[in-house]
Recover the amino acids of this structure.
């Protein structure tokens, strides 16, 4: 299937047209225990988990019940439990659910967030990292998170940053070379099945539209990833260029991942008494 990548003139969201709904079985095949076993749990990543948990704790004034949507191999849940949270995770891959339950001894539910139907006002905090770019309707996902959060509950969202400096610079360079290789996080019909491209602005607007109040936002940068491998002087220059772009992105807040912390605020009635 061939699709075009377009941008909403109103909110800036990037998405494919026509829209290919990702098959759940394809996502389960991509994001399973083998995928996460091959992912390294670097010290920097675990430090990032602690940073986000501390941000939530400061905003809430303590710990409580925490849900992670798309908990993967359970590393974040494990760190949260060690920090005093009562944790629950969700996953769509049965082998990941089994891993989190049996090997880590943590509560993990099989299914989508909407399909699981948690009671309203159930959790003090919800973490959802690298998930919204996969779902068919991100705004509905955020509304469901709002529903299951307790009043004043906190959500932490992480998504790939479609406006990241390394992606934009690499795209310019590759166009100059005449290549059609795309460095943005969009991949609607092939793995890893990213069907939406968010920026700080678009995600902030989505939070506002779903009755959240934004408290904090920042970007982070993962490992440099640039297509090379021919060897020689040009290859070394490409690698150096890539590292410089990632270093600059960290300095100016245009990293490859966007993070937002928001709170569920009570709706204020405008009706006359």
């Amino acid at each position: 299937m061939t699709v075009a990548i377009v941008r909403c003139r109103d909110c800036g969201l990037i998405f494919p047209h026509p829209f290919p709904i990702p098959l759940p079985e394809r996502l389960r095949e991509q994001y399973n225990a083998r995928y996460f076993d091959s992912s390294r749990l670097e010290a920097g990543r675990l430090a990032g988990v602690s940073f986000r948990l501390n941000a939530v704790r400061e905003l809430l004034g303590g710990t409580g019940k925490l849900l992670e949507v798309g908990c993967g191999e359970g590393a974040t849940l494990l760190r949260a439990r060690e920090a005093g949270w009562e944790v629950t995770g969700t996953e769509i891959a049965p082998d990941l659910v089994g891993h989190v339950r049996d090997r880590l001894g943590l509560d993990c539910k099989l299914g989508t967030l909407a399909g699981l139907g948690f009671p309203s006002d159930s959790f003090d905090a919800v973490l959802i990292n690298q998930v919204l770019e996969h779902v068919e309707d991100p705004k509905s996902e955020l509304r469901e998170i709002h529903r299951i959060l307790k009043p004043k509950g906190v959500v932490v969202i992480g998504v790939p940053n479609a406006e990241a400096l390394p992606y934009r610079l690499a795209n310019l360079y590759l166009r100059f070379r005449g290549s059609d290789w795309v460095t943005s996080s969009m991949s609607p019909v092939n793995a890893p099945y990213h069907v939406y491209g968010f920026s700080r602005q678009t995600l902030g607007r989505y939070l506002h539209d779903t009755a959240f109040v934004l408290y904090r936002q920042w970007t982070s940068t993962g490992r440099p990833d640039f297509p090379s491998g021919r060897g020689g002087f040009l290859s070394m220059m490409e690698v150096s260029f890539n590292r410089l772009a990632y270093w600059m992105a960290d300095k100016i807040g245009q990293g490859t991942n966007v993070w937002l912390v928001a709170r569920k605020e009570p709706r204020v009635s405008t009706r006359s008494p």
In short: Residues 120 and 148 are 4 Å apart (CA to CA). Residues 4-264 form a domain with the Rossmann fold fold (CATH 3.40.50.150). The first helix runs from residue 24 to 30.
